[in-house]
Amino acid sequence: MTETRPPLALRLHDADNVVVALREIPAGAAIMDGISASVRIPSGHKVAIMPIASGAPVIKYGQVIGAASLAIAPGDHVHVHNLGMGEHRQDYAFASAATRLDPVTVPATFRGFHRPSGRVGTRNYLGILTSVNCSGSVARFVAHEVARRCLLDEFPNVDGIVPIVHGTGCGMSGEGEGYETLFRTLAGYGHNANFGGILMLGLGCEVMQIGDLVDRKVLNDKARFRYMTIQESGGTKATIERAIAAIRELAAEADKAVREEASASHLVLGMQCGGSDGYSGITANPALGYASDLLVRHGGTSILSETPEIYGAEHLLTRRAADEATGRRIVDLIEWWEDYTARNFGEMDNNPSPGNKRGGLTTILEKSLGAVAKGGTAPLAGVYKYAEPIDRRGFVYMDSPGYDPCSVTGQVASGANLIAFTTGRGSVSGYQPVPGIKIASNPDLWKRMEPDMDVNCGAILTGSSLAEKGEEIFRLLLRVASGEKSKSEAQGFGTVEFVPWQIGAVM
Amino acid sequence: MTETRPPLALRLHDADNVVVALREIPAGAAIMDGISASVRIPSGHKVAIMPIASGAPVIKYGQVIGAASLAIAPGDHVHVHNLGMGEHRQDYAFASAATRLDPVTVPATFRGFHRPSGRVGTRNYLGILTSVNCSGSVARFVAHEVARRCLLDEFPNVDGIVPIVHGTGCGMSGEGEGYETLFRTLAGYGHNANFGGILMLGLGCEVMQIGDLVDRKVLNDKARFRYMTIQESGGTKATIERAIAAIRELAAEADKAVREEASASHLVLGMQCGGSDGYSGITANPALGYASDLLVRHGGTSILSETPEIYGAEHLLTRRAADEATGRRIVDLIEWWEDYTARNFGEMDNNPSPGNKRGGLTTILEKSLGAVAKGGTAPLAGVYKYAEPIDRRGFVYMDSPGYDPCSVTGQVASGANLIAFTTGRGSVSGYQPVPGIKIASNPDLWKRMEPDMDVNCGAILTGSSLAEKGEEIFRLLLRVASGEKSKSEAQGFGTVEFVPWQIGAVM
Ligand SMILES: [Ca+2]
Ligand SMILES: [Ca+2]
Ligand SMILES: [Ca+2]
Ligand SMILES: [Ca+2]
Ligand SMILES: [Ca+2]
């Protein structure tokens, strides 16, 4: 009978010596066998489930989040009054916790589009990639005209045409970090396995020259790549006609692709959180972390990003790094970000705010762990720049801002063919050509916005386990990879969410 | 008979002591009465038309572009071998050249939409303004649904519905320069007289909160303003229905507006150059400058922008400033830009490049003058921040990058209800809800891209005068203000060119 009552508290990892209150717990209430709350515990706050000596580590997410500043008894509220940061922060202990997960014997499969590059797409779109905002309107005109003429009707294996339009590409330096970042982003979209063909469309006089993309051999597969500029083509009307002809050729080539069985090892999952709430870190994010570990065990790749969100927990990634060089790249990123924000008069301000503390977060580690929880427990196989091609399997890190569209844009450019997005407040977005699922962190969000949400991790608050939800996410990802439409995809999201990371002065 | 032959050279201002070769001039060829070229003069280069003593100023555009470093005779080629910078650069001489232009006795009129604010629109659109990229897809869905249901058919005075979608609004600091710049931009679009009604659409959890726009009284006209967030509305589908209902109410209100006669003093012209070539500075830009002066004489407002493009010629604007305080704001902008570019590892690099020099540009002043030429000769009545509301008539300056969509976005936010865009390479773009004309700098561009170009200033190379072309631009602007569609407008440009200036770190 008691099994059907929703649990009062959640233990996030077997090694934890605290649990999280899933709602307010009255003083004296039984939390688990033989342990009762010694005081009232607010929702989202921590309760000790074993004795913790003064100076001993407090463990949540299986990770040290600080040290007890007083002796703590089972049933005690654990917060700022008895938990401090301890001395752990700057001990990177490179590769000290890179424990390989057991691979499955027979990886799961999905049905995808095998590309000549060896990558496998989960969709088969045509893309109109723009080098600059100044060719964006014409790219949309071309897509509109393709639809108006029903041009793709004769190519049933093509999923559609996606104009990739953005706000940058000129009014910027033609060299340096900002230029190289945009260059990688465009090159990465050009290579994404979810595109069966790419028309690259420029204005002609922009800083980001199509010629450079061609010269640097990033867009040189003749069968699936065409390019043109509006100025060379003789203006809007002439460009549209020329583009339509190119699209017809690309469609004929792309249409040859059919879905075939592929190992889950070909899945590259971009993980993201946005519009987070107090539940994200204890429901949706760790459930996604479980799915990420599953994917890694099946031979696939999962990408953690959003550097400002992991600030303060970087030593956990350095410890999980496959080797010291990989771990050092994490430290380098953190240092770059400290400089980037400082020179822009900002700061990497991720300390628990008064609101965070009211919600039960005590230390910066604990806060960042809620985001890192998406990354599960697998060793860190690689660290990549924003939009850098990911060339290793397993759990990897790609640098990016936390800003959702910008971070996902980098992940897609790096090669992601699936997106999993956790949210507590309710984000609605899509990232064509890559399908994404939305994972709700709480039951209220699921109830309010079910037509936008794919997975209800709010059920963890009423008795589902992280493992059950992690398994559900993994199975859904396999189906979506095989062609099932996610809710955002079915609604047509994803034509304005291409947001390359703009670094540097707009000139 | 000789009148019908295209001129060999162009004198840009009555005060000039040099003229510009419109094509290659052979040694000995007659340039004008009694003056022959002493050597071969390449196209675009300068020839003296009077004796210039060593140390005396060389005048082009009616402005000192440097000092003769040798004695120069009529017919001599004037370039790096006999022209230096002189000592003029840093003498701001505030307000020393603020000569008021003669106002016309009876200003020209157009037919526009008179707004309760006292401003007059040249169009009557409904806008869906988004606070963040994360509501951009839904804004497009709403606009699409309005079209699908033919909702605006019953409101004939409404020009259409414009989703204003962008890449920022979150992942940024909630205070400081970047935030305030975006805030002004959104507020300015909300106030632009070309919108008869605005639906502001947010996600809910973004940094750029709609509540702040409402609280700060920028969007508080109940009859023409509605707002909602996707999270509060209960997701995508619910938001679309709620938005449709709001649009219907806004359309009914906007439909009450009709075109009525309005003085040209209500025109606010954003001036822009993009994809410039060697002719821009001697044909399209000075012709637009002539039109700008005409507009000022008719009581209207013209806006020069693009600070990186005027770098080096800032003292010309300080001299034209109406008073010292106005002039000092120009100097402040320049200093801000030097810091902005330096902290982003860039520079205000506007020195004539080797290519510029081959094209005939000798000094940085001369290069920047080609851009400043758009601003005519009127006194500088005001200097504004990017997207700051323009509250003075006459010729004004609004700070912005040179990057076209970003600069025009600021001008529209500042209140522009017309755009004039000069181009040599051929830019194609639009800026809904504000109509813009394209002005071609050379006959080849006109020939190649006439369906995209509204005015052929290339005709100046074959005998038309700057005054004739300036008058033509002014007359066309009056017609477009009254409802005539410009070529970009007729083609549907302008739904992706909203590019707010993103300043600061993406977090
Ligand atoms: Ca986040
Ligand atoms: Ca995010
Ligand atoms: Ca320019
Ligand atoms: Ca300097
Ligand atoms: Ca420009």
TrEMBL record, chains A, B:
Keyword terms of this UniProt record: Lyase
GO molecular function annotation: lyase activity
Domain SAF: 16-84
Phylogenetic placement of the source organism: Bacteria, Pseudomonadati, Pseudomonadota, Alphaproteobacteria, Hyphomicrobiales
BP-aspect Gene Ontology terms: D-galacturonate catabolic process
Family that this chain belongs to: Belongs to the UxaA family.
CDD domains, sorted: SAF_AH_GD (cd11613)
Protein name, UniProt field: Altronate dehydratase
InterPro entries: GD_AH_C, GD_AH_second, SAF, SAF_UxaA/GarD, UxaA_altronate/galactarate_dh
